[in-house]
Design brief:
It is a single chain. The chain has one domain. Helix content is 31%, strand content 18%. The protein contains eleven helices and 14 strands. A six-stranded parallel β-sheet has the order 3-2-1-12-13-14. A four-stranded parallel β-sheet has the order 6-5-9-10, with helices on both faces.
């Protein structure tokens, strides 16, 4: 097998992707692409399956804002075997629900052997609110981002090197939207606000950060879509976040001296994304650098921002199995067009 080919897997959150729009349902995709590439860089919503998770040393778990900075060349990644985890709890979480989060944190140390460090509650409720855009994608806002940042700073000062955040989210006010999501035909209404929280904290602290919402357990649903099932197995969504953060890479400014094993955008050999969601900053930064873009046609979403609209040249893949084959071809130095029939005609510049 040839040397690893660092590959970026992007599945935007809150836009209803068929794969990756639910509770860690893109984990099989990540595992496949990690095997094909030898080194996969992806973001928490791909990996977080609430109580379910998969630890793989070939997968680098990088929060979305940090991923954007990495693709701009503003950050390098330094893979780590272990991070010292801090837990940040929203003061709005009720005592019993907060106790559940604390117990998961302690269990991660006792049962999984993760290095758990300090925990803190914010000095004011964060005030999370949820919204759906006109096109159906989810977003949200915080009343007290200052309380979030203060608590994060105290955890960093106390020695935390990665931070898990649990904020109290409002119970879904639209029973119809929640039922649609649980049935497999809706959008994750929490995703946009979750991304906002982790973006704010990761950018401010320069540490790996990821978020899990605090919600009251739902009554069991007999016809639950399997993609949503991982979120209904326990009292919290925190376990997968802790496991992901426990081996998240350090985030380094480009001027800091590099060490062997550090990852920079110049090493990335491919980026894989849904064919209708190619307009994000990370993907466009990669395309501008000439990194091959693999557009997966089967992963439908609410967006229709494709190669044609953006004027991009991409490698089309009908599904993630084909995308993994393209990654493997690039890793082996094979020209993808050599695998197609009929072969394209020779370009003759002699006139």
């Amino acid at each position: 097998m040839s040397a690893e080919l660092p590959t970026l897997l992007l599945i935007p959150t809150g836009i209803g992707c068929d794969q990756g729009g639910y509770a860690g349902d893109a984990l099989p995709v990540a595992r496949l692409l990690a095997a094909a590439s030898g080194c996969l860089i992806t973001h928490p919503n791909v990996m977080n399956g609430a109580s379910l998770y998969w630890s793989d040393a070939r997968i680098q778990y990088v929060e979305g804002w940090c991923l954007d900075a990495f693709t701009r060349g503003a950050l390098r990644l330094r893979p780590q075997r272990r991070q010292r985890l801090g837990l940040l709890l929203d003061a709005a979480i009720e005592p019993e629900l907060a106790l559940r989060q604390r117990q998961v944190f302690e269990a991660a140390g006792a049962t999984l052997g993760l290095e758990i460090g300090p925990l803190i509650s914010t000095d004011a409720p964060l005030g999370v609110s949820l919204r759906l855009a006109a096109g159906g994608s989810s977003w949200g806002s915080l009343e007290r981002p200052d309380a979030l940042l203060r608590a994060g700073e105290r955890l960093r000062q106390a020695g935390a090197t990665a931070i898990a955040v649990v904020a109290r989210f409002p119970e879904d006010s639209s029973a119809e939207a929640l039922q649609a999501y649980r049935s497999g035909s809706g959008v994750d209404a929490l995703a946009g606000a979750e991304a906002l929280i982790s973006h704010l904290l990761g950018r401010h602290l320069g540490l790996p950060c990821a978020h899990a919402p605090a919600l009251a357990p739902l009554a069991p649903m007999a016809e639950l879509d399997p993609r949503a099932a991982a979120e209904e197995l326990g009292y919290t969504f925190l376990p997968s976040v802790l496991v992901g953060l426990s081996r998240a890479p350090d985030l380094l400014p480009p001027e800091q001296a590099a060490l062997p094993g550090d990852l920079s955008i110049g090493q990335v050999g491919a980026v894989v994304a849904p064919a209708g969601a190619l307009g994000g900053e990370a993907l466009l930064s990669c395309a501008a650098r000439g990194i091959p873009v693999i557009a997966v046609q089967s992963n439908h979403c609410l967006l229709q921002v494709g190669a044609e609209q953006l004027g991009l040249t991409v490698l089309g893949a009908p599904d993630y199995c084909a995308a993994a084959g393209l990654v493997l071809a690039l890793r082996e130095g094979l020209a993808p067009r050599a695998l197609c029939r009929p072969l394209p005609p020779l370009e003759d510049l002699s006139g």
